[in-house]
Amino acid sequence: MAIQLPVYLDNHATTPVDPRVLDAMLPYFREVFGNSASRNHEFGWKAEEAVEKSRAQIAKLINASPKEIIFTSGATESDGLAIRGIAEMYREKGNHIITQVTEHKAVLDTCKRLEKEGYEVTYLPVQKDGRISLDDLRRAITPKTILITIMYANNEIAVVQPINEIGKIAKEKGIFFHTDAVQAVGKIPVDVQKDGIDLLSISAHKIYGPKGVGALYVRRRNPRVQLVAQIDGGGHERGMRSGTLNVPGIVGLGKACELCMNEMAEEAVRLKALRDRLTKAIMSQLDETFINGSMEHRLPHSVNISFAYVEGESMLMGINDIAVSSGSACTSATLEPSYVLKALGVGEDLAHTSIRFGIGRFNTEEEVDYVVNRVVETVQRLRELSPLYEMAKEGVDVAKLNWKVETA
Amino acid sequence: MAYSDKVIEHYNNPRNVGSLDKNDKNVGTGLVGAPEWGDVMKLQMKVNPSTHIIEEAKFKTFGCGSEIASSSLATEWVKGK
């Protein structure tokens, strides 16, 4: 079966919209175009009905109540609303927030801004496997801690944090627990009751829904969580997020969640098989390749591999009919290698050589086999070009050399 | 990613990849960069002792597409000088 090029394996960055999601959305661009806040006519009522249906679909996926779902423009806004909303609401109680170093920038940059406003933030380190230490978390808690925010699964290395244990600690200490669950929702079971989660961010475009819409789960009971709204003007979403609702987007998000609810178990098995097939095939054909982050606590459809002695951007150029991401500096706007890999203790030289493979709903076995062949042949070719590989083969420990002396 | 055709050509078909005998008296070897920067280039040149002309040049590079391409181009430029 001929595969279509280019092959898309960058499903952590975004996902294609599932045709069933698009079909569900279209009527809300056409005939059912009402504003869901229009209380006095059928156009509004129909739109509102669709929005409430979506709330229920999302709530079901995470075992919450529909009343606890707030719609936003995406997870970046949800993260900001959760963190700033809590920080401002509970300022009298305390000013300390605990997070960790491999969080998405939406969390880290929000925390940095809060620090400028007088809040204190602890950024917990991660261990080699990419997970935080629960002892570090306990030790970081003070009487002024008002929020713990730890992502469910990481976007670069797909490692899953010990969420259930974090929830228990948070409950024990009476501290709110927010999780950016963007990469986990719809891929693995997420249960806000079981895991003791008080706030949770969701993004539609990571689960085969449209871009520009997301949600924030805000607990109403045991305990009741209150937030200071970040956008004013009309008091929509129980006063937490003003602004006319993106009805078609919301319908898409709801449908995407419903599909995940129904298909997640079987899909996880299928994608894990593809991921393992890719990983085994690559690592058996190439030496000096390393997996970044825990293989045990990881999303089923993803793997991040470093190919020693071959730089990431040149790799991507070599496999230019395959869409993946790299932790290399050359691929980032700031020319810094991946801060996530750095936090794991991956040496900067290996960080430059990393490639992230995110397999998705629409990838096939043929595509995976094609990717394996192209990756292997490109790495072999670039290693022929690499002075570091040559030196390593001669027995030189490249990492131990003093590179400054060599260039003098 | 907007590399010029020339860069892409040198990346796909690099010239003069390889190594010269580093123990040969007439071969000069330079190694610059550092793995943690994502850039390392080794450039070797064989000079004719009587004419002082660069007869051969070889390179190996660990780095992004533009580095590989520019190393390849450099080896073409120096030959015959």
Q: Would you mind describing this structure in some detail?
A:
The complex is a heterodimer of chains A (408) and B (81). With 408 residues, chain A is an alpha/beta fold. Chain A contains 13 helices and 13 strands. Chain A folds into two domains: 130 residues, Aspartate Aminotransferase, domain 1; 242 residues, Type I PLP-dependent aspartate aminotransferase-like (Major domain) (Aspartate Aminotransferase, domain 2, 3-Layer(aba) Sandwich). The longest helix of chain A has 39 residues. With 81 residues, chain B is of the alpha+beta class. Chain B has one domain: Sufe protein. Chain: A (Alpha-Beta Complex). Helix content of chain B is 27%, strand content 32%. Chain B has a three-stranded antiparallel sheet, covered by helices on one side. In chain B, strand 1 and strand 2 form a beta hairpin. In chain B, helix 1 crosses helix 2. The model of chain B has no long low-confidence stretch (mean pLDDT 87). Chains A and B meet through helix 8, helix 12 and helix 13 of A and strand 1, strand 2, strand 3 and helix 2 of B.
Write a concise keyword list for the protein shown above.
heterodimer, A: alpha/beta, Aspartate Aminotransferase, domain 1, Aspartate Aminotransferase, domain 2, 2 domains, seven-stranded mixed beta sheet, four-stranded antiparallel beta sheet, B: 81 residues, alpha+beta, three-stranded antiparallel beta sheet, globular
